[in-house]
Predict the structure of Undecaprenyl-phosphate glucose phosphotransferase.
Amino acid sequence: MIKDNQVHLNRAHVVADGLIVAGSYVASYFIKFELFSNRLPGGHLPMGIYFRALYFLVPAYLILYYMVQLYTPRRALRMWDEFMDVVKANVAGILGFWVILFLLKHNDFSRSMMIIFAVLNVTLATAFRIVLRKFLRYIRKKGYNLKHVLLVGYSRAAEGYISRILDNPQWGYEIAGVLDDFVPLGTNYHGVKVVGKIEQLGLYLENNNYDEITITLPLDDYDRLEELVAQCEKSGVHTKFIPDYSSLFPSNPYTEDVQGMPVINIRYVPLTNSFNKVAKRLVDIVGSLFAIIIFSPLMLAAAIAVKVTSKGPIIYKQERIGLNGVPFKMYKFRTMKVQTEAEEKKGWTTKGDPRVTRIGAILRKTSIDEMPQFFNIFIGQMSLVGPRPERPQFVEKFKEQIPRYMVKHQVRPGLTGWAQINGYRGDTSIRKRIDYDIYYIENWTMAFDFKIMLGTIRYGFVNKNAY
């Protein structure tokens, strides 16, 4: 029944997208030539020529949507990622259409109308998907369109999967239980119980109508994997495998094909790509220079306030660890009383720290104290976005205590970062901060950087954890 429902849903999805493409195109024609046109005769090509393009445009766009996997069932896909898939397909569609017009020498075909079409199509396609998500969320709460899942093997991977499923009921997964040979029957993890032994898998498959079997064996039990997969596939039930050592892999594994043998890179860093590095560096140069110019009056006022309210230098230079573990001097407006080297190494600033001056507290709370780092960015020691750099003594400490800590030094440190806009700033969990940093490093895109910068403007300047 689930499979039939999914087929019907996909067909409806395709039909709706086709109607949206056609409707957006027709609307863009009337916006361009009726709403904003001077309506002089002979001012544009006949309507029939424009509308004949729909015979090719609609199927082409549906193919593009298929290519970016908009019709592949991905219940856990975030709305932002789906929106970006719609944008990618539409950008490809417009560029392809323009190339075809150029090759056919249709120079009179309105390019501005096609831009209007693209904006309308992205807007309506996204709105449709938002409404569809809300509808699916509603019917799943009512018990429809659910996928019933049985887990095979109790492990860290099983616990992680259960937690994510329970945190996201809108995905429509319902976990029936776990089979395991070593954990006692009835063991409960957030309401999901161990219901039997792995050797009983065949019996459970025969007596129940599962939509998915998810194999989550512990690391020391992988010798049974091939047998279990064969058993699941024989029953015709869709089977997934979540490796118990997934913490070793990036969230988007980078694989290579070595003469037919798949090789998974333990860590994939998009910014090791030369083109990505150059593109990010250009954005850093332009962005930091723009920020220096725009914020210069504010920085001048901050400098005067620091100078007249406490003794000591205006700019505080502190050694931090940067790209490839190389130390550099990071600039900040001084927000503390002048201290000895031993006092500086006391630790992080905490709430009510007596070392912080009155003006310093304001500068820290509003993040104005960080603005001199625009100069660090301009000269290439830092980036606008990236993991925050740490002091040498803490790097030495954390690299021994926190797995994967040193991965953060594979990219330039940032003025702001994914961890910071998610609240992990100042005296907060360093482990959580590193998790966010590594996610950013492994999933970097230019769009992700802009998303973080916008998030910083919205959430990051005034922060409750900035003491």
Q: What stands out?
A: The chain has three domains: 2-141, 147-248, 272-460.
